[in-house]
Write a structure and sequence with these properties.
The protein has 269 residues and is of the alpha+beta class. The protein has three domains: 21-56, no CATH class; 64-128; 132-261, Sandwich (Immunoglobulin-like), CATH 2.60.40. It is 37% helix and 26% strand. The strands form three sheets. A five-stranded antiparallel β-sheet has the order 6-5-9-10-11, with no helix packed on it. Strands 3, 4, 7 and 8 form a four-stranded antiparallel β-sheet that branches. Strands 1-2 form a two-stranded antiparallel ribbon.
């Protein structure tokens, strides 16, 4: 009787254990049975992840759920950060473009203002500065044999402001052929002065180097020789710029004016 009970108990115990093994597993670390739904990876499975269909990506969802959640959250944060950085970069690039355009516009405006100021200043100087040149010529004596004519030049300031540091030099030359180029009259040692607007002054007188010979006077009358009076006028305007004007006259026999302007060598600057 006892033997039958013992056999039955053993059979029932084995059957119970078999049922338990179908729904539970023995946790070696804890020494107890646990439901298979709570089963974690065995050490062998953990060491050989990727070797079986249950862990093809070296991740076991049942045991690594927390890690997967953290990884997913980190990925979302990284993606959001990327979006924020991209948006910031786009906005910053737009702001940089606007700043560059504004800087270019400011530069163009400054250049335009400078050009405008320069144009205005130039126009002011052109309209207000001194303009000094020769007004005419006056001769004392005659262009005749045994005579020595003396010539002075009338210098006028036709501008609106004074001419400063004014100096002039006049030369006279006798030539047997027409001349177009002359040596520059020498202003070295000449006294300097200020000429007010609208005022005029006379240059130093210039004369022939000697008395004219009879044949020289006759050549002038016959227009086979020429007598030239030429010179230079130097001055500064009130804006600090230096200017130079030139003049040239030639003797015209039997003319009321005696001397006329050359077709060249005359300038007012």
């Amino acid at each position: 009787m006892n033997r039958d009970i013992s056999s039955r108990d053993k059979y029932e115990g084995d059957a119970y254990l078999k049922d338990i093994e179908d729904t539970h597993f023995f946790d070696v670390d804890g020494g107890i049975y646990k439901p298979k739904s709570c089963r974690t990876e065995t050490r062998s499975e953990k060491d050989n992840r990727g070797a079986s269909p249950s862990t093809p990506f070296f991740v076991n969802p049942s045991s690594d759920g927390c890690l997967i959640g953290i990884a997913t959250f980190s990925a979302l944060v990284a993606f959001a950060t990327l979006l924020v950085v991209g948006a910031y970069t786009y906005v910053a690039h737009g702001q940089w473009e606007e700043m560059r355009k504004a800087a270019n516009f400011a530069s163009r405006s400054a250049n335009a203002a400078e050009v405008s100021n320069t144009t205005t200043r130039t126009a002011l100087e052109v309209g207000e500065r001194a303009y000094v040149g020769d007004k005419g010529i006056k001769i004392s004596g005659k262009v005749a044999p045994s005579d020595q004519p003396t010539v002075v030049v009338d210098i006028l300031n036709g501008g609106r402001t004074p001419a400063l540091n004014l100096v002039s030099a006049v030369s006279m030359t006798y030539s047997l052929k027409p001349m177009k180029k002359f040596e520059r009259a020498d202003t070295t040692g000449a006294s300097r002065s200020t000429l007010l607007p609208g005022a005029d002054t006379w240059s130093n007188g210039v004369t022939t180097k000697r008395l004219l010979l009879t044949e020289e006077a006759q050549a002038l009358d016959n227009k086979t020789a020429w007598l030239y009076v030429y010179g230079v006028i130097e001055y500064d305007d009130v804006f600090g710029k230096h200017w130079e004007s030139t003049f040239c006259y030639f003797y015209v026999p039997k003319s009321p004016s005696v001397f006329s302007n050359c077709p060249y060598g005359n300038s007012i600057r």
